[in-house]
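Q: What residues go here?
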């Protein structure tokens, strides 16, 4: 009696248990619908793929399908690769005998909307003698096109990662707004002379030309004149103007020259003296931005004060 109860209990448990052939139930494995089915993983006739117990093979197959990795090997980086990984992309760094860091950066992609303007400006700068085409240079800086109000572009070299870090800061006193308008106070008429291209009127020596090579979509170009983007430009140009206009009744800062006069005759005499001096040194003006016989100074937007009343203001950062 006791034995029959045990058999009945075991039979009931087997009928309610999950089938190992299909991992479903409740039914006996001998009564399973997939009793004679062939497993697609292990090719055995005892279960289906969903209930396959070949775990190592199953895991390996899943990893292959997910990662699709055929071979993985860890190698140690070379010294050159370690240097490049710590720098910006496409940056090549070499140190020469003079302890200068020579840097060459590949050309950046120019937007198609202004690419034609950039090409025209490069050709124009070559034609007027600002740039010259070169085939090779140790130094190379990318360009930054800047849109101008006359629907053209100004091409500036991005020297902040190449030349500027290697330059020694040049200290030169720059005039303040108070000093500028103190020299102009009490006068009736004034003129604002805008220097065309500003820095591009200062010639460079051969050694400096090598440093200011730019990398463009059209190839390598080298500046023959002082380009925009050099950290010492303001100090160099201000010092040059101070020497040229020394002794003349002007107030000037970077690319703007202000001159005044109480009477028309005095004003015209000062204007003639300044123009003659600039012509002697080959300094060109931009007539579209020059103002004559004006009573307001529009170059410094933060000021915009009347010279007649001597109103002082703050000089907007250039």
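A:
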């Amino acid at each position: 009696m006791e034995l029959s109860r045990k058999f009945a209990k075991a039979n009931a448990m087997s009928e309610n248990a999950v089938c190992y052939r299909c991992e479903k139930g409740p039914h006996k494995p001998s009564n399973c619908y997939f009793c004679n089915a062939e497993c697609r993983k292990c090719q055995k006739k005892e279960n289906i793929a969903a209930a396959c117990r070949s775990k190592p093979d199953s895991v390996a197959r899943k990893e292959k399908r997910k990662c699709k990795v055929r071979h993985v090997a860890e190698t140690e980086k070379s010294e050159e690769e370690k240097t490049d990984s710590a720098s910006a992309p496409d940056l090549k760094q070499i140190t020469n005998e003079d302890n200068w860091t020579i840097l060459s950066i590949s050309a950046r992609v120019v937007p198609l909307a202004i690419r034609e303007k950039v090409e025209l400006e490069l050709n124009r700068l070559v034609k007027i003698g600002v740039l010259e085409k070169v085939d090779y240079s140790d130094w190379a800086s990318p360009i930054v096109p800047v849109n101008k109000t006359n629907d053209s572009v100004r091409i500036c070299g991005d020297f902040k990662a190449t030349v500027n870090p290697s330059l020694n800061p040049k200290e030169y006193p720059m005039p303040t707004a108070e000093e500028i308008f103190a020299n102009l106070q009490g006068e009736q008429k004034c003129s604002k002379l805008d220097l065309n291209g500003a820095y591009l009127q200062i010639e460079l020596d051969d050694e400096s030309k090598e440093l200011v090579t730019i990398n463009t979509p059209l190839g390598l170009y080298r500046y023959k004149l002082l380009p925009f983007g050099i950290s010492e430009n303001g100090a160099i140009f201000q010092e040059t103007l101070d020497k040229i206009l020394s002794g003349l009744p002007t107030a000037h800062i970077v690319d703007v020259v202000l001159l005044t006069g109480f009477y028309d005759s005095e004003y015209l005499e000062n204007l003639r003296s300044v123009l003659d001096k600039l012509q002697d040194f080959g300094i060109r003006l931009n007539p579209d931005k020059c103002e004559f016989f004006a009573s307001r100074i529009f170059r410094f937007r933060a000021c915009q004060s009347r010279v007649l009343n001597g109103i002082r203001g703050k000089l907007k950062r250039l």
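A: Context that may help when evaluating the design: Helices lie at 2-16, 55-67, 79-85, 112-127, 177-184, 206-211, 233-244, 264-280. Residues 56-97, 298-318 have pLDDT under 50 and may be disordered.
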